[in-house]
TatD family hydrolase (Rhodanobacter aciditrophus), 257 residues
Amino acid sequence: MFTDSHCHLDFQCFKPDLSTLLNDCHKVGVDSFLVPSTTQASWANVIELSNRYPQIRIALGLHPYFLKDGLGEYRDELELALAHPAVVAVGEIGLDKWQGMPDYGLQQRIYYEQLCLAKGLGLPIILHARKSEDDLLKVIRQLNFQHGGIVHAFNGSLQQAKQFIDLGFVLGIGGTVTYPRAQKAQRVLAALSDADFVLETDSPDMPLYGYQGQRNTPEKVLLVAESVAKIRGQSLTQLAQNTRANLQRVLPNWHEV
Ligand SMILES: [Zn+2]
């Protein structure tokens, strides 16, 4: 059985058919899901999803992509919401250096505050990194943050991968490795040990190779697994066991479904 360790099932595009989708996932062996939140307004929806579907675990936090100037006080509300039993991490949080992203100073402030909160509560984090791996690592070290978590959709160098792993993180491996041109990502994946990664889709975004332009869904984590198995010369069974064990190790609040 596989877990999709990163899927935004609270997004509007899943509303009409989520129950059917989760049933279809179960039929193909994808039996659990980690849904990270994005905005303050999304926390209630994500919690609601976990109440309705016991196979859904959640992370609560503010995603850098969706930050707005004038963000008010959020910490008390976040801290309160993080006490929900389905919560396994603070997330998704991080830094995004892509063009057109919210002000980087604002991103850094909110990332720092949320990392402090996670540290205070003893919770792991779900990290969003885009061209920002070194900045993220710096703050983790500066705060001596020791609860680890998942670097979602990791796309950095092997050297950066090793630094995150040494700090107690695993890397989220998704659709990127299915693209023939993604040789750097495939080389990094091939060099990792079995304990270093988990699988994800980032649904509805990051379509797999051959599915560009379509809504991505958690069922596709199986196709990610097939690519990973091929690149690493492993069986799907081994991969399912290792990635499940890794998820439970880095997210201690993750209980079996
Ligand atoms: Zn995400």
Remarks:
- The pocket of zinc ion is lined by residues 6, 8, 36, 92, 152, 202 (CB under 6 Å).
- The chain has a mean pLDDT of 95.
- The radius of gyration is 17 Å.
- The chain has one domain: 2-250.
